[in-house]
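Quick log. Single chain, no ligands specified.
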Amino acid sequence: MSEPYLALLHTGEVHVAGFAERFQEAAPDISLRHLVRADLLAAAEAAGGLTPEIAADTATALNAALAEGATCVLCTCSTLGPAVEATAREAGAPILRIDRALAEKAVAESNSVLVVAAVETTIGPTLALLEEVAATAGHDVTFRTLVLPEAWALFQVGDQAGYTTAIADAIREKLGDADMVVLAQASMAGAVAELDDLGVPVLASPPLAVAQAIQLFRERTASA
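-> predicted structure:
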């Protein structure tokens, strides 16, 4: 029998090292396989959002990972989130979206959230998820959105430091009365450290999603 492993579906090669490091720190015993499908996010950006065709391609990639032997799969792209959860529901499969744990924590611990994204295609799925979680919890939360295409342009040319600083600067300027900031994309996590003096919590999806994926992996392997 082959060794159990957790598969990660990324939409950029740049995410592989960061997630590998997070898993190594939190659960060095878990084997990982990284699948990179940059075409999925590129197609969503070109289309202005998630289309049925992109959702179907996402489902195919996720189901293929399971068919090839993955114990569970974590998709690290927020734009693909709705397709990820639809695939999980339809297949009854152990597939996670990157921002589910983030949304649950934000709704449970805040009343006014500033939701920040760098790429336009992310804000819709993330906001819809937050509103769904809030409605299910019966928690009246106010959401404001901030989209930073100028920051995304820096990320696309590999200027990670400039990208992170642009995000942090914009949040300081636009925080208003929000009592929590949600960073909608995994790539934005570096801004948390730059905002440690902001005075309100700043949540990023990677640490929460990694913890959720580890828990799911352990549950699945224990019951196998």
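The longest strand covers residues 5-10.
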